[in-house]
Write a structure and sequence with these properties.
Elements: H1 9-26, H2 33-44, H3 70-98
Length: about 110
């Protein structure tokens, strides 16, 4: 099943004008063709400013030693300690099983 796409700002403005037009029609107000044409022109004249998606970070040249992401170093350190701990335990278990210091039923090295 495909993911539902969000409406753009222009589409939302068009839908809003369409709802307003429908509400006027439901109130039995007669809308002349000229008014329809002017509303259609208004819809097509809507200009939406371009928004930059990439945030710009201005870092002065003297602040390169300053850590922008202080949590990153701590997270990498925790991940590294956990990874090396797991690898160390696996290496020790392999060494113990290979030299028959530890024997587990069903595992033969």
């Amino acid at each position: 099943m495909s993911k539902h796409k969000k409406k753009t700002r222009k589409q939302k403005a068009l839908a809003d004008l369409h709802r307003k037009l429908q509400s006027l029609k439901s109130q039995n107000l007669v809308v002349s063709r000229e008014e329809k044409n002017t509303k259609a022109k208004e819809i097509h004249q809507i200009r939406i400013p371009e928004v930059s998606i990439r945030p710009s970070i201005n870092i002065p040249s003297s602040d390169f030693s300053k850590n922008i992401y202080p949590f990153l170093l701590r997270d990498i350190k925790k991940t590294g300690i956990l990874t090396f701990g797991i690898l160390g335990i696996q290496f020790i278990l392999f060494f113990l099983l290979k030299n028959h210091v530890l024997s587990l039923p069903g595992i033969n090295y």
